[in-house]
Design a protein that fits this description.
The complex is a heterodimer of chains A (116) and B (111). Chain A has 116 residues and is an all-beta fold. Helix content of chain A is 0%, strand content 52%. The chains are: A mainly beta (116), B mainly beta (111). At the A-B interface, strand 5 and strand 9 of A face strand 5, strand 9 and strand 10 of B.
């Protein structure tokens, strides 16, 4: 299958700082990228859907001013956690979607964010 | 919104045993997907189901799309230690739309 790369794999930051997570589709163009958050021993919860060149669509309860998403090209989407707090500590996962069926969506390896 | 109930939450089995897990939905999905997630990794797609009643195999894995389109099951036959992980079902309402994930089944296989 196609490769989706997330960077960094893990990051530790201080409260109040901002952290940027990158999601890249390495060998295909992704028309849509999805950002998920996963707390320990829980399922993946969709945060937002981003389409290249347009504003992201956020799920209910997700603060768009806190979780900034930029999808500037067909191979790169970024999630910036602004003014991070310890409760933002989580596993963040992106998926990049190239076609018309979800079998054409590939997940990144995830980013473990710890806010101290 | 959509909710997926996945069971069991966890399973502890001996190597060689068969495993079955299922998901039910409060409403209809057009596609059912089954993923496996290893610790610290993103989910990897195992099987995709597109038609009600469809039965699909991938090696030792078999999954079925329920006739009502509100449920699906995954069977793993002759389990091996590397089957350890969390298995998630996911449903898609329309093609290319967002996925709704089940709560996951944590599988432990004792050698």
């Amino acid at each position: 299958g196609a490769v989706v790369s997330q960077h960094p794999s893990w990051v530790i930051c201080k409260s109040g700082t901002s952290v940027k997570i990158e999601c890249r589709s390495l060998d295909f163009q992704a028309t849509t990228m999805f950002w998920y958050r996963q707390f320990p021993k829980q399922s993946l919860m969709l945060m937002a859907t981003s389409n290249e060149g347009s504003k992201a669509t956020y799920e209910q309860g997700v603060e768009k001013d806190k979780f900034l998403i930029n999808h500037a090209s067909l191979t790169l989407s970024t999630l910036t956690v602004t003014s991070a707090h310890p409760e933002d500590s989580s596993f963040y996962i992106c998926s990049a979607y190239a076609g018309t069926r979800n079998t054409e969506a590939f997940f990144g390896q995830g980013t473990r964010l710890t806010v101290v | 919104g959509q909710q997926l109930n996945q069971s069991p939450q966890s399973m502890f089995i001996q190597e060689g045993e068969d495993v079955s897990m299922n998901c039910t939905s409060s409403s209809i999905f057009n596609t059912w997907l089954w993923y496996k997630q290893d610790p610290g990794e993103g989910p990897v797609l195992l099987i995709a189901l597109y038609k009600a009643g469809e039965l699909t195999s991938n090696g030792r894995l078999t999954a079925q799309f329920g006739i009502t389109r509100k449920d699906s099951f995954l069977n793993i036959s002759a389990s091996i230690p590397s089957d350890v992980g969390i298995y998630f079902c996911a449903g898609e309402e329309t093609s290319g739309s967002r996925l709704t994930f089940g709560e996951g089944t944590q599988l432990t296989v004792n050698p």
